[in-house]
Amino acid sequence: MMRLSRLFRFANAARLATYLIALWKLARHAETPTAAKLVALAVLAYAVSPIDLIPDFIPVLGQLDDLILLPLGVALAVKLTPKPLWEARLREAEVSREQLPKLWWGAAAIVLLWAVLFGLFVWWLVRVLAA
Q1: Range of the domain at 126
Q2: 81 to each of 20, 58, 90, 121, how far by Cα in Å?
Q3: Confidence class of residue 31 from pLDDT cuts 50, 70 and 90?
Q4: How many CA atoms lie within 13 A of 50 on its CB side?
Q5: CA end-to-end distance (rounded Å), the chain
Q6: Would you say the pTM of this structure is higher than 0.70?
Q7: 39 and 72 part of one domain
Q8: Do 121 and 68 share a structural domain?
């Protein structure tokens, strides 16, 4: 039951934005372990991605994937990070909560990734239908 309450604490929408900013700062910090950086970047990519695992227009399930996957990703990144390092990034994020980082390159990378995946799907579909 303790883990469940911890998950809901991470899922608090107001705090989730602060955690995502802290993940951004964690991913850019030099002392962050590689595994934690990779998890932080994956969580951030999923958070800003316009395409979800389960589309949001599906009632309940569409919002449930964000409510579960994002906090679980944050929890995994926190677990992979030394405690003092995470606490320092979290304090920085709380101070700069009003100033969101400019992520133009990140948005461009996500759009490019989805465009490439869509292009590969179309290429595969054309090959299948032509055969």
Answers
A1: 101-131
A2: 15, 34, 12, 37
A3: very high
A4: 10
A5: 54
A6: no
A7: yes
A8: no
